[in-house]
Specification:
Blueprint (H helix, E strand, L loop, with lengths): L1 H23 L1 E7 L8 H8 L2 H4 L2 E7 L3 H9 L5 E5 L1 H7 L5 E6 L7 E4 L17 E4 L5 H12 L8 E4 L4 H8 L5 E4 L3 H8 L5 E4 L3 H8 L6 E6 H6 L1 H18 L4 H7 L2 H4 L3 H11 L11 H14 L1 H6 L10 H7 L1
Parallel strand pairs: 1-2, 1-3, 6-7, 6-8
Antiparallel strand pairs: 3-10, 4-10, 5-8, 5-9
Length: 335
């Protein structure tokens, strides 16, 4: 009888423990602004490496067409966190919506303005885009902001160019190959895929390297980051710390492994059929990834400067850019 009671107790204890394990993982939904894009690779790779699980999180990655769609998901309440470009935090601050980035994984934005192979002869500079159709991932996304900034910088009225949402992956490549659009703001691996097919592909602006980023913006310009509403960040410090730990560990893993190792961990549908081109794009992109996850205050200032130049609303808003990000969770991850 005693052993029977002991057996019941052991079974009850096992059930209790399994319940604790099950409840230990907090569910967090992260909206990604285009998972196939290499700019967002650290978020997808963190999931593939099991880093979110190790941090005690059950992370559901929701793959959307562009950063603006990911932002809408968080503002609408269907997702908790955005994996997208930091510049949205600055842009929304002008509309009194408080967003806060807490870990940065792209040191450079990696945005590339490319001419469609069918329109190479007629478009030789950014000035030639007046009145043309230009593809972006989704209207209101960082690709759209980048386009408007470049048009204005080159003396053009952004309203004079038609902006068309074409996504970031195969849909964007197809639209470019078929000449449905005259040019597009793209990211890798799509740019490298096009270059593989069209050796004379015309690139009008490129921010995949430090040199090109400095030439375009006058300073380093942070790209992808995890961010949410300032209220969510304040109310969920444990979840934010766990997400930060997972991304920081993933960045360390990226910089201590080969491009081949990284590719082998990625979902096959994101790598695609041409592994050589993906690998080539990945090798081009690795220097873009942050080594620490920290926001460079000068980079945040550069984002504000770009948006102030391109948007009267941002210029008038007198934004305190230091409120749009925090480094405290990355600093804690280092400890």
């Amino acid at each position: 009888m005693k052993s029977m009671a002991g057996g019941f107790f052991a079974a009850f204890l096992a059930l209790m423990l399994s319940g604790q394990v099950a409840t230990a993982q907090t569910k967090v939904t992260v909206a990604v602004g285009g998972g196939a894009c290499l700019c967002y690779l650290p978020t997808v790779l963190a999931k593939q490496l099991g880093e979110f699980d190790k941090a005690g999180l059950n992370v559901d990655l929701v793959d959307l067409k562009g950063g603006s769609d990911a932002l809408k998901a968080v503002l609408g309440g269907s997702a908790d966190v955005v994996s997208g470009y930091f510049d949205h935090c600055v842009n929304l601050a002008a509309k009194k919506q408080e967003l806060q980035a807490f870990v940065v994984y792209d040191r450079y934005p990696g945005l590339v303005l490319v001419v469609s192979p069918k329109h190479t002869n007629e478009i030789k500079s950014i000035k030639d885009l007046a009145g043309k159709k230009v593809g972006v991932s989704a209207p209101g996304s960082s690709t759209d902001f980048f386009l408007k900034y470049l048009l204005k910088k080159n003396g053009l009225d952004p309203a004079g160019t038609s902006v068309i949402g074409v996504g970031l992956g195969a849909t964007a490549v197809a639209a470019m190959e078929q000449g449905q659009i005259d040019a597009a703001v793209m990211l890798d691996p799509s740019v490298t895929v096009l270059q593989g097919s069209f050796k004379d592909l015309r690139i009008l602006s490129d921010t995949r390297t430090q040199k090109d980023t400095l030439a375009t913006f006058g300073g380093e310009y942070p790209g992808g980051a995890l961010y949410s509403t300032a209220a969510w960040v304040k109310a969920h410090p444990k979840e934010v710390q766990a997400l930060t730990n997972a991304i920081v560990n993933t960045l360390k893993w990226i910089h201590s492994h080969s491009a081949e190792d990284i590719m082998n961990k990625m979902p096959p549908n994101m790598v695609g059929k041409n592994k050589d081109l993906y690998l080539s794009a990945l090798k081009n992109t690795i220097p873009m990834y942050s080594q620490t996850g920290t926001m460079d205050p000068k980079g945040a200032d550069a984002v504000l400067a770009v948006f102030s130049e391109g948007s009267p609303d941002v210029a008038k808003a007198h934004i305190d850019v230091t409120k749009t990000y925090t480094n405290k969770f990355v600093e804690q991850a280092g400890k």
